[in-house]
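=== Given protein ===
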Amino acid sequence: MTLRINTLAGILLLLAGAAGAAYAQSHSDVQRIVAVVNDEIISEYDVNERMQLITSTTGALRNQEEYDQLRKTVVQLLVDEKLQLQEAKEQKINITDEEVQQRFNDMAARNNISADQFTQELSRMGASKDMILRQVKAGLAWEEVINARLRPFLAIGDGEVKTYLDNLKNNKGQPEYRIGEIFLAVDSPDKDVEARQTAERLVRQIREGADFGAVARQFSDVATGAVGGDTGWVIGEHINPDIKDAVLKLQEGQVSDPIRTTAGYYIVTLGDQREVLSADPDDTQIDLQQVIVKIGSDPDAQRQRIAAQAATLKECSGVGQLASSLGATDSGSLGTVRLGDLPAPVKNAVRPLEIGQASEPLRTGTDFRVLVVCGKTVSEVKEPTPSEIEDYLSNQRLAMMARRYLRDLRRDAIIDYK
């Protein structure tokens, strides 16, 4: 079973199989105290359980060095959660058991399973419901702390909103990018090597198939981690200068090498690209019909014949006649589909077509398929509203303030690593 967990608290995407977890478990005394955070303890058991869940997300640990790197990262995650819960208590913010349980239930429901099934799946992977509930509670508590302590001091003026919108209009037609980011903060020079090694490991695991969004939710030190690292659409000139060169070199779906900045390491991926205030081609709705022809003894000659006849098609009313003339084994409507949801070969074949035009023959298994566009609806382009712009600018600023807040909590806390 594969579960997708997507919560504001940044819980993991859980993938089947917990390779590497047994390695961690066999190397530890679960009763040992790992750290004390302002008189509250973190045990080896806590560390092992979180590592088990993380290795289910990012893949197996290959050696002792990777185990040691991940363990340091997990300890810091658990320390931060302790600090977040302690700060919530200091601010007299109470997260009830009912709120936490409801979030747990929502997580299960989004995966089309019951809360009991979710609990059983966690147990199968060597994790527990209690561990997830603790992580959820820390996330909810930190969210409330940020809203109470920082959001009231945010002031996005009308001038800033207008400047942002004017800039969009001035850049109409220029490229903008949907970027995913993971940021690993380096708060002191002695943490640099550890952060770099962690970043390198995460890049490797993402390239080997680990879900970028899941890794971002668990490891990223910026607010976008809660939404899988998604920064939304960013105009080229507004891309963070620290990562801009790397982003512009990426093809859709590629992941960068770790990028060192003054504050830490970025890992970025390019999700999509479009033009500012222009319709996203992937959002175009296309009504497709298809003609399927079984491949014969001379595929090359057959392909040329099919392509020549398909090129004569002028309107969709002729699809039936085309199918008959080609000796098709099947033909008919595929319905209306979003261009961006089509497999890449199909998407590339139909994207340039006008209504009534047929594609070149596509070879699929033992068949040739000709696709015919019989309707096309381009998505409507809407300018973002002032409130949407204000929310975007506020969240950007809030993310920076929240990171500084947590850094200050670390600095002021009494943390004893055992």
Observations:
- The first strand starts at residue 33 and ends at 37.
- The two ends are 37 Å apart (CA to CA).
- Residues 281-377 form a domain with the Chitinase A; domain 3 fold (CATH 3.10.50.40).
